[in-house]
């Protein structure tokens, strides 16, 4: 089946911070996702779909509702009696593996906890002694990107479940003491317009990175957006071909960074720099410190280095701190660390 052309990632004008936050989460999925706060129509969903499109394809057992590759399959398949392929895997029969692109799964507005987590048919379990599982959105999102538009309008409990899975990489479906777990490792991207209500600080804190996004103010760049979009709509295939070489450069850089990340080191005095930065802006808890450290290492890898520099910490703090700072009621979330420091100094 021919895939629909998607507006290319590299053709997105500006919005560098958002693009970088997305890329860093692809390189290092333990960054626990990105929250994109701000205006509508600023290429948020375009960027996510476009990034997924250029990432290397992955092997998946055909029709597996848990998106498993063959090697990861056994543990889950033993209990996934509903699916024919699991029997084949357990009997060491050949299974049909296919290669497909990274998926972007969108969480529908008003999704319930059952829809997100999945459900189990208890009657079937009691009668037949087999777990009959109805996989949820977290199963569909495994090894892909979960895009949650207007995350601030979701039920708090559902957001909690999403953030738990994003942090632990596992989802557990539980009914009356019967439980079923499956891997659920995905890049979580939440978007929200703060004018429509804030997320609770406890939930904000669990998004690894946060970027503020607004419409581009430069007239020339706005013209570039119009021209590029018009060119894409007129002839999507030629437009994508024209941007292919640039996309390849980004993908190769991501692949090099993924390979380099485990080798990245940081000098101990820079850990003190991170700790002091978090103390200066008044962060609750320690997630901020830990995420700055991981982000700084990921930035070093993205920049082709095996050692973290002070600039990586400054850039990481811009992405990891704005949503983690203690605020007074009705105070807006600051979008840069300088503003945070100033605010703390005048308290
Ligand atoms: N910086 C940009 N570069 C290229 N195209 C852009 C840019 N900003 C917006 N667009 C274009 O504007 C349109 C809206 O973008 P998109 O749907 O990605 O916005 P969004 O931020 O996801 O909006 P919403 O919050 O309403 O879901 C698309 O046609 C997209 O190509």
UniProtKB/TrEMBL annotation:
Molecular-function annotations in GO: ATP binding
Alphabetical list of SMART domains matching this protein: AAA
Gene3D superfamilies: Magnesium chelatase subunit I, C-Terminal domain, P-loop containing nucleotide triphosphate hydrolases
Keyword Nucleotide-binding: yes
Keywords linked to the UniProt accession: ATP-binding, Nucleotide-binding
Record-linked InterPro entries: AAA+_ATPase, CHLI-like, ChlI/MoxR_AAA_lid, Mg_chelatse_chII-like_cat_dom, P-loop_NTPase
Family annotation (Pfam families): AAA_lid_2, Mg_chelatase
Residue span, AAA+ ATPase domain: 30-217
Pathway: Porphyrin-containing compound metabolism; bacteriochlorophyll biosynthesis
Family (UniProt): Belongs to the Mg-chelatase subunits D/I family.
Function: Involved in bacteriochlorophyll biosynthesis; introduces a magnesium ion into protoporphyrin IX to yield Mg-protoporphyrin IX.
Name of the featured protein: Mg-protoporphyrin IX chelatase
Species, as recorded: Desulfosarcina ovata subsp. ovata
């Amino acid at each position: 089946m021919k895939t629909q052309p998607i507006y290319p990632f590299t053709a997105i004008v500006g919005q560098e911070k958002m693009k970088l936050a997305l890329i860093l989460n692809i390189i290092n999925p333990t960054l626990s996702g990105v929250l994109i706060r701000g205006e509508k129509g600023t290429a948020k969903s375009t960027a996510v779909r476009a990034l997924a499109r250029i990432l290397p394809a992955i092997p998946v057992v055909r029709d597996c509702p848990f998106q498993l590759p063959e090697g990861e399959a056994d543990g889950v398949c033993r209990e996934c009696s509903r699916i024919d392929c699991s029997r084949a895997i357990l009997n060491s029969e050949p299974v049909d593996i296919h290669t497909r692109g990274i998926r972007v799964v969108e969480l529908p507005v008003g999704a319930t906890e059952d829809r997100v987590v999945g459900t189990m048919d208890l009657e079937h379990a009691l009668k037949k002694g087999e777990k009959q599982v109805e996989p949820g959105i977290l199963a569909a999102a495994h090894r892909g990107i979960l895009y949650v538009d207007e995350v601030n309008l979701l039920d708090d409990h559902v957001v909690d479940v999403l953030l738990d899975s994003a942090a632990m990489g596992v989802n557990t479906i539980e009914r009356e003491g019967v439980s079923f777990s499956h891997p659920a490792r995905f890049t979580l991207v939440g978007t929200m317009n703060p004018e429509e209500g804030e997320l609770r600080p406890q939930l904000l804190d669990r998004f690894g990175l946060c970027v503020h996004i607004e419409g581009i103010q430069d007239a020339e760049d706005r013209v570039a957006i119009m021209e590029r979009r018009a060119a894409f709509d007129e002839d999507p295939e030629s437009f994508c071909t024209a941007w292919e070489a640039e996309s390849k450069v980004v993908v190769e850089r991501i692949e090099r960074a993924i390979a380099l990340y485990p080798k990245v080191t940081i000098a101990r005095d820079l850990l003190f720099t991170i700790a002091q930065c978090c103390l200066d802006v008044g962060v609750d808890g320690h997630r901020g410190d830990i995420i700055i450290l991981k982000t700084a290492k990921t930035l070093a890898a993205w920049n082709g280095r095996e050692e973290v520099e002070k600039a990586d910490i400054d850039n990481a703090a811009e992405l990891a701190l704005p949503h983690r700072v203690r605020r007074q009621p009705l105070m807006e979330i600051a979008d840069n660390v300088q503003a945070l420091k100033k605010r703390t100094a005048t308290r």
